[in-house]
Please model this.
Amino acid sequence: MIEIKDLHKSYKMGSNSLHVLKGINFSVEEGELVAIMGSSGSGKSTLLNILGMLDELDEGSYDLDGVPIKNLNETKAANYRNKFLGFVFQSFNLINYKSAMENVALPLYYQKVGRKERQEKALKYLEQVGLKEWATHLPNELSGGQKQRVAIARAMAAEPKVLLADEPTGALDSKTSYEVMDLIQKINDQGNTILLVTHEPDIADMCKRIVHLKDGVIIEDKKVDQVRAAQYV
Amino acid sequence: MFDIERWQEIFDTIRKNKLRTFLTGLSVASGIFILVILLGFGQGMQNGIAAEFEQDAATSVWVWPGVTTMEHKGLNPGRRIRLTNENYEFASKLLEDDIENQSPRIFVRGVSVNYGKEGLSYGVQGVSSQFQQIENAKITKGRFLNYQDEIGIGKVAVIGNKIAKDVFGDLETPIGAFIEISGIPFKIIGQFKEKEEREEERIYIPITTAQRVFNGGNRVNNLSYTLAPAKDFEETVAQAIQFKENLKGYLQSAHTIAPDDDSALEVWSAMEEAKRYFNLTSSIKLFFWIVGVFTIIAGVVGVSNIMLIVVKERTKEIGIRKALGAKPWSIVGMILHEAIFVTALSGFAGLIFSMGLLEIVGPHIEVDYILNPSVNFTVAISTVFVLIFAGAVAGFFPAWRAASIHTIDALREE
Model:
């Protein structure tokens, strides 16, 4: 599904150049649930941003579902993001003047799905994350866990090939974190490919594979026995 | 533009951001409102000045003699110029073709005016029957002096409304009553109305009576004329100037006055003054236009500022939309679409409100030099379009900038 070869990325900071990713080789199969771990500054978020086409790579190659991702202009990137990717952010990034349902329906608007169908689909995904009754509520009327579940429903609504989650539990307490992880595991059980960035070992253990990043290189890449989050909920 | 989904998205945004929308709208509406009111008052001033000017006949020409200030052909300065009946009659023949109405005028001085035992202190003027048209006086009762009064040296008088009210207020009508001028009874035959009250404090008697009865001899104080109007304003002005020059030339040679000695002989043409007034009003109009244009510029700056803030405020939302697959152009389109919709709606609201106000309040304004302020609808509506266009241009650049910010940077914005 994802194929990365010899990926380099550096940032210019004034006259200095900061080499963040120093040759990453990495691939993900369909249906995997991968945790990318590392301390802050290890390059894990940069890697996720490149995977999410929110940032461009300097060197190397990136194929997503057989499509080479390179020389993207904004329009093309927007197109691919809409077609291939779903995002879940640490800070939820819901639009605060839109209701839960409208937030979930938004990616479908950019897929040119009709209003009625958008609403039906949005409700279906809200139901999946257990928030159907909250459809008409605004984000600031929801708890942190509920917001993240709405964000996950929104990411899933576009039916992406890959779900990218950047510290999805970073702003949540452990009980809510496990609820969110339970949801992510269930979505993965349905066959969806998920990559998530975290620095919490217990969250990483709930994935099927852990990739350890340090100073811009992968130092460890191992399959693990998944801990089911449901047992903590 | 006709994408129904886009419209729904925009209405959603507007509905849920009422304050922001209201503030944008307010700055546009008030800009248009101020402009329309300003333009309306510019027009009102022009109307007002034109109306003020209409109190004397528009084509009237007056001659006022004075004192010479220049030596000419051996004559010393300091000579008082006295016009005579001969001057009047000669000028009438000389300029016959241009004259519509004409009258000499003599101020009857050093006489006492009485009504019964009451002494009156009003000016007495001897004029001809055509003086009514020259002064633009309206007869409200009785009649004005006529030719018969003139040749018959009639002891008749026409009085102003003010005198009628102040002196003859007790009577049903002053017509038929007698006043005494230097002990000689004069029958009141008419009463007239003027625009200015000051001019209603006059007693008109026939010029012949004034000269013969009150020792006027053949002296005349003023000559006054109205001219037959020509095809259009410009031609009438040209004609008035020509007439004035001819009259002046004749009188200057008759009295041996230096051609550039203006204080010896003043010939005043209402038409020329009118042209000056109309030039003044067009300057006033220009001034209001300039103020108006600056108001619009201020409005445009206001709208641009608000657009800038709106876009800044929505940077994160733009980031989210882009992460969800919005193309840059669709972001720009969305922001512009909303901006144009809001400016158009509020611009027209301001237009309707201000024009309504002018329409309702305008006719009731009674101030000197302002009359019936109103505004040209085409002008008003084009300013609305200018503002909409300016709002769109002003909105475009921040929108475009916001749409081209890197999505991750936009998302980090708080």
Chain A has one domain: 2-94+160-232.
